[in-house]
């Protein structure tokens, strides 16, 4: 929709609503926008028309800029007046001001905004549940490989928060990882699972799919990164050549320090004891080794259960083969051989059930124990890598920031950042120019980086709070599994005892 609005026709109420719904005068987030539409008492057909005309567009940022927000309010008002919704209403408008819509209680709208843009503060174990509620990510391997000559795998990525399902290649994840590190150099951006290692291809793809889901889950549930337009683009864009477009669109976006409202005051948020950060860092280094060993042991137990299931299934198969062998009616080397064969058939079925139980329980243990330990291990390693990155690259980050500021002053930023609407680019420009003195100070960048590490440390400890539930799941699962298998083996034992006790009188194995 390209119709422009006359500033003289914009009611004061429009500007007030934008101010209430916006976070620091930025475009209205999609979730806040949805909540506002739910308060205007229109039917779904009318809401869909408004959404299609002026709502968030996936190819941009999943947000509504000021102009489209004003158009939304005007369209709501006209719809409430009984008019047919169309952009022609703007062309034919002759009044002094656009009509004011009647909205129900704005409290739910403001609550959504408050929950999304709450001031950053150290996380605690108690609010770990809020991290889970941010988003639910599912990454699934697409069964068929693509490509005529060079085959490659694709992944179906689903986001509950955005209600989206998109197809991505591994290199698309690589591009996202690069731009996130550029935008958030002092945040937890874990390493991706490896591109290729030498192992069974199907097993490797299964492990990499799990790794990509853990990685994207950690990123999408990060309380700061989750609100960035980079992530929205990756989770919703349905165009082709995602890896190149995501790089071209976002590689020139300034890092968090250059646009954060906390850049000048980060020192005030640091702990009074300067040694606390260093102590936490050493503790996390130790936890990397401990949790890594726990993860390795849990995975080894799962592998043993899977191998046991395979071996028991093979025993079941061989007994089944033996139960149908025709050794000849004249052969009497074994008394009541036909009855014994029926026994083998029954044992084969019981062993098959035991094998299936072992496999099912192993798969469940992989999901409920190993994957959760994997998430914890990944975020611990990410913290260790963050501290190493900070030591290596702070001076480099500062030089890059100054270079970007110089580029901005030469009026090249508009052309450098493509794919983001002009209003958002202007917002970045004005904020960077307003913070020129802050950006130029290496001391303030150092304070900001330490503040971020302090915050990320709290995030790590929030995830560490999941250890009791992981261990409880492990013990509970093992207990139930052993009791279930004990019942199955005892049933098999009783049936075999019947065979042993009655083979002399011709009574065979009975189910």
TrEMBL record:
<dbReference type="GO" id="GO:0006886">
    <property type="term" value="P:intracellular protein transport"/>
</dbReference>
<dbReference type="Pfam" id="PF00787">
    <property type="entry name" value="PX"/>
</dbReference>
<dbReference type="InterPro" id="IPR028662">
    <property type="entry name" value="SNX8/Mvp1"/>
</dbReference>
<dbReference type="InterPro" id="IPR011992">
    <property type="entry name" value="EF-hand-dom_pair"/>
</dbReference>
<dbReference type="InterPro" id="IPR001683">
    <property type="entry name" value="PX_dom"/>
</dbReference>
<dbReference type="GO" id="GO:0034498">
    <property type="term" value="P:early endosome to Golgi transport"/>
</dbReference>
<dbReference type="GO" id="GO:0005829">
    <property type="term" value="C:cytosol"/>
</dbReference>
<protein>
    <recommendedName>
        <fullName>PX domain-containing protein</fullName>
    </recommendedName>
</protein>
<dbReference type="InterPro" id="IPR035704">
    <property type="entry name" value="SNX8/Mvp1_PX"/>
</dbReference>
<dbReference type="GO" id="GO:0035091">
    <property type="term" value="F:phosphatidylinositol binding"/>
</dbReference>
<dbReference type="InterPro" id="IPR036871">
    <property type="entry name" value="PX_dom_sf"/>
</dbReference>
<feature type="domain" description="PX">
    <location>
        <begin position="133"/>
        <end position="241"/>
    </location>
</feature>
<dbReference type="GO" id="GO:0031901">
    <property type="term" value="C:early endosome membrane"/>
</dbReference>
């Amino acid at each position: 929709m390209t119709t422009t609005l006359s500033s003289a026709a914009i009611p004061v109420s429009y500007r007030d609503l934008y101010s209430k719904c916006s976070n620091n005068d930025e475009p209205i987030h999609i979730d806040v926008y949805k909540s506002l539409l739910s308060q205007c008492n229109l039917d779904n057909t009318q809401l869909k028309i408004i959404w299609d005309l002026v709502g968030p567009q996936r190819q941009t940022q999943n947000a509504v800029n000021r102009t489209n927000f004003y158009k939304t309010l005007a369209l709501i008002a006209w719809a409430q007046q009984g008019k047919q919704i169309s952009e022609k209403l703007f062309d034919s408008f002759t009044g002094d001001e656009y009509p004011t819509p009647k909205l129900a209680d704005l409290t739910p709208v403001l609550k959504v905004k408050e929950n999304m843009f709450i001031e950053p503060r150290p996380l605690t174990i108690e609010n770990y549940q809020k991290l889970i509620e941010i988003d639910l990510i599912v990454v699934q391997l697409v069964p068929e490989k693509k490509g005529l000559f060079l085959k490659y795998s694709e992944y179906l990525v689903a986001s509950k928060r955005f209600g989206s399902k998109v197809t991505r290649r591994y290199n698309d994840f690589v591009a996202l990882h690069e731009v996130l590190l550029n935008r958030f150099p002092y945040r937890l951006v874990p390493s991706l699972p490896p591109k290729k290692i030498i192992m069974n291809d199907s097993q490797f793809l299964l492990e990499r799919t799990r790794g990509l889901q853990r990685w994207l889950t950690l990123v999408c549930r990060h309380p700061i990164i989750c609100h960035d337009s980079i992530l929205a683009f990756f989770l919703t864009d349905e165009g082709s050549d995602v890896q190149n477009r995501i790089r071209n669109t976002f590689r020139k976006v300034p890092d968090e320090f250059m646009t954060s409202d906390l850049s000048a005051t980060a020192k005030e948020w640091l702990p009074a004891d300067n040694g606390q950060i260093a102590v936490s860092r050493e503790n996390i280094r130790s936890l990397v080794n401990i949790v890594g060993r726990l993860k390795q042991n849990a995975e080894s137990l799962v592998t043993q259960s899977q191998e046991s299931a395979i071996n028991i299934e093979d025993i079941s198969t061989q007994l089944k083969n033996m139960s149908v062998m025709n050794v000849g009616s004249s052969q009497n080397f074994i008394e009541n051989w036909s009855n014994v064969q029926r026994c083998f058939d029954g044992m084969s079925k019981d062993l098959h059930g035991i094998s299936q139980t072992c496999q099912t329980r192993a798969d469940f243990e992989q999901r409920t124990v190993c994957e959760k330990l994997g998430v914890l291990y990944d975020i611990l390693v990410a913290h260790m890598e963050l501290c190493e990155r900070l030591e290596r690259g702070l001076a480099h980050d500062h030089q890059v920031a100054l270079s970007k500021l110089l580029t901005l002053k030469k009026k090249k930023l508009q052309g450098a950042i493509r794919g983001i609407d002009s209003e958002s680019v202007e917002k970045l420009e004005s904020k960077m120019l307003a913070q020129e003195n802050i950006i130029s100070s290496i001391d303030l960048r150092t304070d900001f980086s330490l503040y971020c590490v302090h915050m990320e440390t709290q995030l790590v400890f929030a995830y560490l709070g999941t250890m009791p539930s992981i261990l409880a799941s492990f013990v509970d699962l093992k207990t139930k599994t052993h009791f279930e298998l004990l019942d199955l083996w005892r049933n098999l034992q009783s049936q075999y005892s019947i065979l042993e006790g009655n083979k002399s009188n011709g009574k065979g194995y009975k189910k």
